[in-house]
Amino acid sequence: MIKNVKIISIEKKTVSDGYLEIDGKIIKKVNKGEPPIETLNQVSRVIDGKGKWLLPGFVNTHTHVGMNLLRGYSDELPLQRWLQEKMWPFEAKLDRASVAAARRLALVEMLKSGTTTFLEMYHLFMDDFAEEIQDVGIRATLMRSMIGLCPTEEQEAKLKEAKEFALNWHQKAEGRIQTMLAPHAPYTCPPNFIKRIVEEATALQLPVHMHLAETKKEVDDHINEYGLHPVHHLDELGVLKEVDWLFAHGVFLEDEHLEVLQSAKSVAISHNPISNLKLGSGIAAVSKWQQYDLNICLGTDSVASNNTLDMVEEMRMAALIHKGIERDPTVVTSIDALHMATLNGSKALQFEGVKGIKEGAEADFVLINGNQAHLQPESQLFSHLVYALNSQDVTDVYVQGVALMENKQLLTLDEEKIIYEANHEFRQVMSRL
Ligand SMILES: CSC[C@H]1O[C@@H](n2cnc3c(O)ncnc32)[C@H](O)[C@@H]1O
Ligand SMILES: [Zn+2]
């Protein structure tokens, strides 16, 4: 039980001083005031949350944490050159140990900044990662993603591997792992390959995740090659109504595309504002997206294009940038940004039990040290959480009722060793380049 804490409900938009009782994985009771003495006597542990704020953990709906050794490796290039000249040659030299070191570094960074759930789209050593997630206790939606710039037999081999991975790990780790199928993008997966992937996803009832309309070049090239915008092309292929989709980016989506997406089976879009700015891709029209029946969530993308996995920064950027570009301070409110960074994300990643701070929900939450100058006066907490919070203010992280960080100490990861090994592995990869 956590008592004496400020409990923040994003969906109700309320803050109350009270206590939270946890029973196993689940929030058993959320109440105002002091817990009854009988309950205090029954529970195994009582934590005093004085000065702290309790809210849902952050959900990062698009990243590639296998790339975590590429932070700062290539700044200031546009997407296609960045991928082809820098990312792919470096990634070709990654091995099992370097990918593991990269991911552990990412797990430290994510947990320390309050992320309780994330989506990993990657193609290397995914079984190792699923096992690690099982041990570390974080929650993740995983996929062995596919680039289809290869002969059909090779595409089919990748798809077989992706399906096996998805089936082996779906709803494993006590329900903390979900899986999806993931064609990388329309410019790396030919139409027939996308159709094959969606066919398999339909049979397995899995959602599909893909980069979409990230740059103007991507869209222009697609129109030149196929005569259609990627969204119209997906519609023509008949794949939009078959499965639940989670797209990343969507920087180049106009009303005509949003209308098509709205009529699909179900569509979530992961907004990645910092990556889109850094790669010079542009700014997605999020306030326009909000006029459609689409689930808008947030992601960081990898540290090679961000350059952190910090959802607090991402949320703040999402709440600020649209106000500036539209010259309208009323768009993308703080409560919109909080929804995007938490509850919309867990819905997009299909964790239906992660539904906020309420009785019966899975106990995924973070504690914030509210007792700091930059979070005063202790009023207008929804504003502070978006416009003033720093991810270092996160002190405790819980997933399924289990503490993964307490008073800023990680309990299931050895931070010092992980930092040492990441630097060692980075030098190893560089020596192979
Ligand atoms: C096969 S999926 C992993 C693959 O994705 C590449 N990647 C990383 N960030 C982006 C991005 O913003 N757009 C498109 N592709 C991206 C990365 O190089 C990985 O190999
Ligand atoms: Zn990406």
Automatic annotation (TrEMBL):
<keyword id="KW-0378">Hydrolase</keyword>
<dbReference type="GO" id="GO:0090614">
    <property type="term" value="F:5'-methylthioadenosine deaminase activity"/>
</dbReference>
<protein>
    <recommendedName>
        <fullName>5-methylthioadenosine/S-adenosylhomocysteine deaminase</fullName>
        <ecNumber>3.5.4.28</ecNumber>
        <ecNumber>3.5.4.31</ecNumber>
    </recommendedName>
</protein>
<feature type="binding site">
    <location>
        <position position="211"/>
    </location>
    <ligand>
        <name>Zn(2+)</name>
    </ligand>
</feature>
<comment type="similarity">
    <text>Belongs to the metallo-dependent hydrolases superfamily. MTA/SAH deaminase family.</text>
</comment>
<feature type="binding site">
    <location>
        <position position="91"/>
    </location>
    <ligand>
        <name>substrate</name>
    </ligand>
</feature>
<feature type="binding site">
    <location>
        <position position="301"/>
    </location>
    <ligand>
        <name>Zn(2+)</name>
    </ligand>
</feature>
<feature type="domain" description="Amidohydrolase-related">
    <location>
        <begin position="54"/>
        <end position="402"/>
    </location>
</feature>
<feature type="binding site">
    <location>
        <position position="184"/>
    </location>
    <ligand>
        <name>substrate</name>
    </ligand>
</feature>
<dbReference type="InterPro" id="IPR011059">
    <property type="entry name" value="Metal-dep_hydrolase_composite"/>
</dbReference>
<dbReference type="InterPro" id="IPR032466">
    <property type="entry name" value="Metal_Hydrolase"/>
</dbReference>
<keyword id="KW-0862">Zinc</keyword>
<dbReference type="GO" id="GO:0046872">
    <property type="term" value="F:metal ion binding"/>
</dbReference>
<feature type="binding site">
    <location>
        <position position="64"/>
    </location>
    <ligand>
        <name>Zn(2+)</name>
    </ligand>
</feature>
<dbReference type="Pfam" id="PF01979">
    <property type="entry name" value="Amidohydro_1"/>
</dbReference>
<keyword id="KW-0479">Metal-binding</keyword>
<dbReference type="GO" id="GO:0050270">
    <property type="term" value="F:S-adenosylhomocysteine deaminase activity"/>
</dbReference>
<dbReference type="InterPro" id="IPR006680">
    <property type="entry name" value="Amidohydro-rel"/>
</dbReference>
<feature type="binding site">
    <location>
        <position position="301"/>
    </location>
    <ligand>
        <name>substrate</name>
    </ligand>
</feature>
<comment type="function">
    <text>Catalyzes the deamination of 5-methylthioadenosine and S-adenosyl-L-homocysteine into 5-methylthioinosine and S-inosyl-L-homocysteine, respectively. Is also able to deaminate adenosine.</text>
</comment>
<feature type="binding site">
    <location>
        <position position="214"/>
    </location>
    <ligand>
        <name>substrate</name>
    </ligand>
</feature>
<feature type="binding site">
    <location>
        <position position="62"/>
    </location>
    <ligand>
        <name>Zn(2+)</name>
    </ligand>
</feature>
<dbReference type="InterPro" id="IPR023512">
    <property type="entry name" value="Deaminase_MtaD/DadD"/>
</dbReference>
<dbReference type="InterPro" id="IPR050287">
    <property type="entry name" value="MTA/SAH_deaminase"/>
</dbReference>
<feature type="binding site">
    <location>
        <position position="144"/>
    </location>
    <ligand>
        <name>substrate</name>
    </ligand>
</feature>
